[in-house]
Every structure is written in C-alpha cells, then in structure tokens.
Amino acid sequence: MKKNISDSITNKVYEYRVLARLSQRELAQQVGVSKQTIFVMEKGNYLPSLLLAFRIAKFFNVDITEIFEYIEEGEVNHEDH
Q1: 57 with 68: CB under 8 angstroms?
Q2: Taking the model in full, what pTM does it have?
C-alpha cells in the first residue's frame, strides 16, 4: 500500500512586503535572493528553502509561521497490485 500525501505551503510574503513598503528587488537584496525568486514565491509558484523562509521571517521580525503556513490536504491511499 502506497500513501500519497497532498499538502502545500502558503505564504504572506506579498502582504508583509507591501506593508513594509518594499519593492520585490529591495526584499530580495535583504534576504540574498533574486527579484525573480520573490516574484514566483509571491505567486505561489516556488517553495523557498527552509533557510530562506527563516531569513524572510527574521527580516520582518516575526515567527516563521506568521508568513508561511503548512496546509495538509489529506492522505490518499493507493493499493499496489
């Protein structure tokens, strides 16, 4: 029996960045990545490394769970024949 877990991580990087009145480029420079990385992360098309997630949370002086949220969609069981 094989278990597939469908889960995801959402983020509030855009909200925190806008509230801080920063451009994507400015935030990227502060956390050591490219502007493109911030762009795709805000769109939900990129999951940051744990290190980058902590850097972003530290930059905004909040707990990592304030910006990044783990969402468990549930388990799907498949039987191998």
Answers
A1: yes
A2: 0.81
pLDDT tens digits, residue range 16-73? 999 999 999 999 999 999 999 999 999 999 999 999 999 999 999 999 999 999 998 7
Q: How far lies 46's CA from each of 35, 42, 61, 70, in Å?
A: 13, 8, 22, 14
60 and 67 Cβ atoms separated by less than 8 Å: yes
Tell me if 13 sits within 8 A of 67, measured CB to CB: yes
CATH for 2-73 (3.50.50.60, 1.10.10.10, 1.10.260.40, 3.30.465.10): 1.10.260.40
